[in-house]
Amino acid sequence: VSVNRPKFSPCATWNANATTFANSTTIGTNPGVVFVDRNNTIYVTDRTSYRVQVWQNGQNNVTRTVSGGLNDPIGLFILNNGDIYVDNGVANYQINKWMINSTNSTVVTYLSGGHCYGLFIDINQTLYCSLKINQVLKISLNSTGNMTQLAAGNSTPGNTTYLLNWPRGIFVDTNLDLYVADGGNNRIQKFSYGQLNGITIAGSRTTGTFDLNGPSDVVLDADGYLFIVDQNTNRVIGSGPYGYRCLVGCSQQTGSTSSQLNQPYSMSFDSQGNIYVTDKNNARVQMFNLATNPNSCNIVSTQTPLLTSNNPSSSSTLTSSKSTSAPSITSSLIISSTQLSSTSPSIS
């Protein structure tokens, strides 16, 4: 898969203060999805000017603009060969594809459900689209029939195991399990391959995780741990062998300073583990540098139920008030019960 999935220490930290990678001059006043490929080429959907902006190999200036026929694009995915897949659903009911050196697009498939808030292409070349109409569809790119299949949800909003409510960011791992940021239900749902009944692995009062408020994106690292953009609390949350913790935007206060976000929508890792976030209402893309990624940690838990270390998606918990240290301590992480609470999980 072309997404970066870095390997992190359980106590890796990111700089609280971000640098602004792009602003409204290049990405308009309503940025959508940010995608960083393995060459550190950065792509952002510009919903204002109906285009995709590209920065080759992390350069400071835009090196390519993909446009023509788009209408309010949001979802975005890039293959290892440089092919660009873009949501074009709001008025044109399509997913479009631009080959690496092409100035014209081709239609991948037609959809009747409006926006693809999230796009993902798995290791089998199956494309997934999370639709406004409360479902995730998939289509094989190896097939000539362009037949879509249901991957999760249906057209009815709901909070049962087989329903979704405003699904947005999606991720498919190498086991072909589907992860959905189920924004209207304030949860992350996991659908095992071939299953239409999901399980809640984060949010919605799930034991050992944060309460979420309008999650808009979910990404997995090399070990399968979750990283979540929690839009309505203006932060990014991460999981690990010792539980969940806030990574950036942890004041939860709306703002425009370098340490604040305002309705973040999407995130992507570069190959070094830095986090890029589309900061929607501030009309910018923020980059939070990976500050520390030590080989060993000192972990302190304060009577907080945590996830088991061998399965980041497990609902099993442990409670500990003891400090455990590795042979050589280079960093520390304290997880408290106050970190595991948030404001009301209702979505606006």
From TrEMBL:
NHL repeats lie at residues 164-194, 248-291. PANTHER family: E3 UBIQUITIN-PROTEIN LIGASE NHLRC1-RELATED (PTHR24104), PROTEIN LIN-41 (PTHR24104:SF25). PROSITE patterns: NHL. Keywords: Repeat. The keyword Repeat applies. GO terms for molecular function: zinc ion binding. This is NHL repeat containing protein. It comes from the Eukaryota. The keyword Repeat applies. Coiled coil: none annotated.
